[in-house]
Write a structure and sequence with these properties.
The chain is mostly beta strands. The chain is built from three helices and eleven strands. One of its GO terms (molecular function) is catalytic activity.
């Protein structure tokens, strides 16, 4: 089975009509956009294949570039960090045991807020050394550019996990992941990265 256990979506449209709202909503203090949880059965009634969708409608206008996380396991905790700038999107994540996965979409003006996104996640977990975290998304800047824009103490504690090829038609690599643990010198991770530029992903796509 080649299906993914976690799908991080940065350009999500509307929720699939067959997804069922669970009634769980996370509304963090200081972050205006709530996170809603949905259960979505990809199988049948007799052979269910359920996943959970964590959805943040940050694009209240066009409803095109919302943030979402799709998980085969129900989240133990939903984490929402405030946007690093007034123009930025919130940083949304879910915790599964001691692993946390974030879906992020940096600003289109060269990803100027991307370093702050990574640094904010790092700081959030400084007192939780048991947690390993992964930030996946559209950083709107090349991996090496992001890495060297980070504070040295953060740079030494993260690994960039990027695909082998370009993630946009012009040849740039803007969609990738950052893995880290705020209590160790580095974290080696392997991940299959998919791009929202080479082929747009939506919540209605197969996982």
């Amino acid at each position: 089975n080649s299906a993914a256990d976690i799908l991080l979506v940065q350009e999500a449209g509307s929720i699939p009509v067959s997804a069922v709202y669970t009634g769980t909503v996370v509304q963090p203090v200081g972050v205006g956009i709530p996170i809603d949880e949905f259960a979505w059965n990809l199988g049948t009634a007799s052979r269910p294949n359920q996943v959970f969708i964590y959805y943040s409608r940050v694009d209240v206008g066009a409803n095109r570039v919302n943030l979402a996380i799709v998980s085969r396991r129900r989240a133990d905790e939903v984490i929402v960090l405030p946007p690093p700038t007034t123009a930025s999107r919130p940083i949304i994540g879910i915790r599964l045991g001691n692993d946390v996965f974030f879906s992020v979409h940096a600003l289109a003006n060269g990803g100027t807020d991307a370093p702050a996104i990574v640094e904010n996640v790092h700081r959030f977990f400084q007192n939780r050394p048991e947690i390993s975290w992964f930030i996946g998304g559209d950083f709107n800047r090349e991996p090496n550019s992001l890495l060297w824009a980070l504070e040295p103490t953060v740079r030494s504690r993260v690994d960039i996990v990027s695909p082998s090829g370009a993630t946009q038609n012009s040849g740039g690599t803007l969609d990738y992941g950052v893995a880290g643990n705020s209590a160790t010198t580095s974290l080696c991770s392997s991940c299959h990265c998919c791009s929202s530029h080479a082929g747009k992903y939506a919540l209605t796509d197969h996982i």
